[in-house]
Amino acid sequence: MHQGSRLRPTLAGLALLALTASARSEVPTPAASPASAPAERPSAEAAARPRASIEAGPMLQAMEKLAADVKGWGGTVGVAFADVGTGETVAARDGHVAFNPASNAKLVTAAAALRLLGPGHRFVTGLYGKLDGDRVPELVLRGQGDPSLDGGALWPMVRELVTAGVRRVGAIVVDQSYFDDRFVPPAFEEQPNEWAPFRAPVSAVALDENTVTLSVRAAEKGKDAQVRVDPIGFVDVVGTVRTTKKGDPEKITLELSPKGDRLVARVGGHLPENSRVVRVRRRLDDPRLVPGHALRAVLASAGIEVEGAVKLGGAKEKRLLASHRSRPLGELLALLGKDSDNFYAEMIFKAVGAEKKARPGTAEGAAEVITAYLKEIGAFEEGMVVKNGSGLFDANRITPLGTTALLRAAYRDVTMGPEFLAHLAVGGADGTLRGRFKNLGDRGIVRAKTGTLNAVASLSGYVLGPPGRAPLAFSIYVNGIPGKVGQARGGIDKVVEAAARALWKDR
């Protein structure tokens, strides 16, 4: 049923209109707890019974088709749809069963961070020390878990030092005490030899997402290509990349190894003349001193002499000389919802623990605080487990009905509802849903978070309704399907598309 031509003139403002009508007019009340006693839970037949106002037959058929396919692949599936306005379950299948949500765990991290820290929360990174004439004996670089900090943020702070008359620094001290020294998030140890950026460690002061990026630009044929490594100041490059004739294949090698408190990058390979700039990115193993070495390089570029070494410490220094503030949390969360960035998720997760449990922030403290939040809003069920903030590897467990309760509570919370909706990918338009729901893309009515592991496919979010109609919150988890994730994703999309058609029937 194609309805795009009829809906297109009004849908540019639909998301805002639907959200405003619900979130601005309703008192934020917790969803009814799905974790009630077994006697209070609806039967499977009652849970799957559609509301009279929604023709759910095609949706239930799509659910059954997905369930049959998944069973044939040897996996399991859980589904839940709930009316955001009433909290009523529209349809569910194994809604109380706890599944590995993959990156749908980021929904929990985002909602808890928005509620507990606030959409306007900013992460502060500062330079601290005693100004003695034109010299700072120990310049302390301290952070509060800013996931977005990059090398460019160091320059304005150094300019403040220059303006203040600083010409010499005795030593650079990196204060990582806002977080504990467990850099590897829970469950990340399952792939210890994985050097891809998605497995980057977390630290209170983290530069360039605790990764190293090698950028190679071709020169003239027969000459060495230009090689640059970021962050600056920490990595020594050994080796060369040769420029070959046009049309040759690209081959770039990068091997990282420690050398004292620095890192050596051994590069090699070849790049054809006039080719694009090639970038190779790898995670850091120990990120603690990297920001200090980068700061040293920036200070030198600004004409400030650094006399001593880069070291850890400085927690007692309170005199602020310069600072950098991140963008508001409400804006940073797009990296979780739209782009599914694991590093951002784990940094924000741990920051919640540091702010709301104890310092130094720990993953365990964050999990405790966030679990309490889920219980407070009625979104925690038996079998649910919060361990890390990204959903990477085999860590978390969430139920479909627990997820829809979370989605409903977040949407209806006037302090965070707009930001939570905005951080999600838009079907057919952006983020990890850019290539999905193309037939609904002009409506922009599917706002959701994807999740993918080797044997897991998940999707949870909202189907926005027409004006005057509350959205549907939905959650679909498929586990135990190695080699079938792509097929499962197609089945998941058909269920959501059927729900969208039911919600927009006669529109």
Summarize this entry quickly:
This protein is of the alpha/beta class and 507 residues long. The protein contains 14 helices and 19 strands. Helix 4 packs antiparallel against helix 14 and helix 10 packs across helix 11.
Q: What key phrases describe this protein's structure?
A:
single chain, 507 residues, alpha/beta, 14 helices, globular, disordered N terminus
Structure description:
The chain has 507 residues and is of the alpha/beta class. 29% of the residues lie in helices and 23% in strands. It has helices at residues 4-7, 14-23, 44-48, 57-72, 105-117, 154-163, 290-301, 329-332, 334-337, 342-356, 363-376, 400-412, 417-422, 485-503, and strands spanning 76-83, 89-93, 124-128, 135-143, 168-175, 211-217, 226-230, 235-238, 242-244, 251-259, 262-272, 278-283, 305-306, 310-312, 320-325, 425-426, 446-453, 456-463, 472-479. The strands form four sheets. The protein has a six-stranded antiparallel beta sheet with strand order 2-1-19-18-17-16, sandwiched between helices. Strands 3, 4, 5, 13, 14 and 15 form a six-stranded mixed beta sheet that branches. Strands 8, 9, 10 and 11 form a four-stranded mixed beta sheet that branches. Helix 10 packs across helix 11. Its EC number is 3.4.16.4. Keywords: Carboxypeptidase, Hydrolase, Protease, Signal. Residues 30-51 have a biased composition (Low complexity). InterPro entries: Beta-lactam/transpept-like (IPR012338), Peptidase_S13 (IPR000667). Residues 1-23 form the signal peptide.
